UniProtKB/TrEMBL annotation:
GO terms for molecular function: acid-thiol ligase activity. Residues 15-352 form the AMP-dependent synthetase/ligase domain. This is Acyl-CoA synthetase (AMP-forming)/AMP-acid ligase II. GO terms for biological process: secondary metabolite biosynthetic process. Keywords: Ligase. PANTHER family: ACETYL-COA SYNTHETASE, ANTHRANILATE--COA LIGASE. Pfam families: AMP-binding. The lineage of its organism: Bacteria, Pseudomonadati, Pseudomonadota, Betaproteobacteria, Rhodocyclales. InterPro entries: AMP-bd_C_sf, AMP-dep_synth/lig_dom.
Length: 496
């Protein structure tokens, strides 16, 4: 099979496959563009299994180059185009890329970078001597898709690096076969739908649940070159009229705060899906009040590509998505938080050159690093990472629960909050919170936080509060939890 061929097999020739800015690309046109792109990659020397990094903003050209590399038998990796050359360097070294596809503004910097790397991957883009993409396409002839084993690599996705060094996740050709199962079964996706994800295509969330699911169903996928803001989402909805919208809790909250949410209420969006981080109850309730629509909250990882668990009620307690199997460690008490195993055809086969981490994969099953509490009815309550689940005063406490409770109490006065378990002087586990006040709201934030802490049960109250200017984030904007404990130690020592 060939993953790109499968993705483009369902859409009617005249139906719109991709909309980006003013461009409308039909399925017939997209198939032809991908065939020619594959021919261009082959002519440039791409061999089966070689890696291609796509380093550019989302667009129909991005999809053409990305799918064309898979069609030609290559292995493609979408990378955040906002990364600096210093941040991109270890990624190129790690994946041993053969080519880097870019747009003209990045070409000069990339050529300077690759000249310093072992193997010197070739830069392909506008204005690049001998590797100008437009010229390569103009000279290329369309080719048939390379047929590969279902377990042959098709694409990589980089993990977010929230707990350490990012890893290259290897997905194989079969990954796209059921990529639309969540959207079809829980959001009613059909070929008549129009999908819009605010996250970018280098994220597994947008790649799997919007682009892959949309193409697999023969629907229209809406892409945006711009970085998402609440106002930009409103513009995109007004212009492109999506029927299914995928976003993250932080942006849903911004849309609530700015009034955008209420203005989306009558725009024809049937379902709003949230993933990427835990969805606080306050955002779920606020969204329903302002739009009349309930948010569907999903859980997935780079390793699963698509969403494996979901919740559509205020409990936030999750159940498996269609085609997802879940198993538990029989040696762990059902009342204790534990890691789970999930199986689905979209689950990856492993990591690139990380043998120690392969223990998380087992014959089609994958065990995320997150912890869950099992409910008597079989549903699962998300409790954060393994390090986020603590035993304090004989009771289980998730740092995630503490963060959500305090964030809800502080409202807009608080910009960021993170809780972390630390060892106290008496040898017991205790909580510390690191917080960032919203601009001009420090006094209000401090007062609300004190009130919120007082309202918590005793075993959930943090012993330390550190006020910071900012919390450490990964290049993709996620909290670097691996750095929280050292930050606490530094600020606690300074206070002492």
């Amino acid at each position: 099979m060939n993953a790109a061929e499968i993705l483009l097999s369902a859409g009617a020739d005249a139906a719109t496959a991709i909309e980006c800015d003013e461009r409308r690309v039909s399925y017939a046109e997209l198939r032809e563009r991908v065939r020619r792109a594959a021919g261009a990659w082959q002519a440039l020397g791409l061999a089966p299994g070689e890696r291609v990094v796509v380093f550019a903003p989302d667009s129909d050209d991005w999809a053409e180059a990305y799918l064309g590399a898979i069609w030609a038998g290559g292995v493609v990796i979408g990378v955040n185009p906002r990364l600096s050359m210093a941040e991109l360097t270890p990624i190129l070294k790690e994946c041993e890329a053969r080519f880097v596809w870019c747009e003209p503004p990045q070409a000069a910097d990339l050529q300077g970078l690759v000249a310093t790397l072992p193997g010197a991957p070739a830069v392909v883009g506008g204005g690049v001597a001998e590797r100008d993409w437009a010229q390569a396409l103009a000279r290329a002839e369309g080719i048939e898709p390379m047929q590969l084993d279902a377990e042959a690599p098709a694409l990589w996705i980089g993990t977010s690096g929230t707990t350490g060094t990012p890893k290259g996740v290897i997905h194989v050709q079969r990954v796209v076969v059921n990529a639309h199962s969540f959207a079809c079964n829980l959001a009613g996706l059909t070929s008549a739908d129009r999908l819009y994800a605010t996250s970018k295509l280098f994220f597994a969330y947008a790649l799997g649940n919007s682009l892959f699911a949309g193409l697999r169903a023969g629907a229209t996928v809406i892409l945006d070159r711009e970085w998402p803001t609440a106002e930009r989402v409103e513009e995109m909805v007004a212009k492109h009229r999506p029927t299914l919208l995928f976003s993250v809790p932080t942006l849903y909250n911004k849309m609530l705060q700015t009034g955008v949410a209420a203005r989306l209420a009558d725009r024809g969006i049937r379902h709003f899906v949230s993933a990427g981080e835990a969805l606080p109850l306050a955002i779920r309730q606020g969204w329903r009040e302002q739009t009349g629509c309930a948010l569907i909250s999903g859980y997935g990882t780079s390793e699963t590509l698509c969403l494996m668990l979901y919740s559509d009620d205020d409990s936030g307690v999750m159940r498996p998505t269609p085609l997802t199997e879940v198993r538990f460690n029989p040696d762990v008490d059902a009342e204790l938080p534990q890691r789970i195993w999930v199986r689905h055809t979209t689950v990856a086969v492993g990591y690139w050159k990380r043998p120690d981490a392969q223990v998380d994969f087992d014959s089609g099953w994958f065990s995320p690093g997150d912890m869950f509490l099992r409910h008597p009815d079989g549903r699962l309550e998300y409790a954060g990472r393994n390090d986020d689940m603590l035993k304090i005063a004989g009771q289980w406490v998730s740092t995630l629960w503490v963060e959500q409770a305090l964030a809800a109490h502080c409202g807009e006065a608080l910009h960021q909050i993170a809780a972390v378990g630390v060892d106290s002087a008496d040898g017991l586990t205790a909580l510390a919170v690191l917080v960032v006040a919203a601009p001009g709201s420090w006094n209000e934030a401090r007062q609300r936080l004190e009130e919120g802490i007082a309202a918590l049960p005793g075993h959930r109250r943090p012993r330390w509060v550190h006020w910071l200017d900012a919390l450490p984030l990964t290049p993709t904007g996620k909290l670097q939890r691996g750095r929280l404990r050292s930050l606490h130690e530094r600020h606690a020592a300074a206070a002492a």
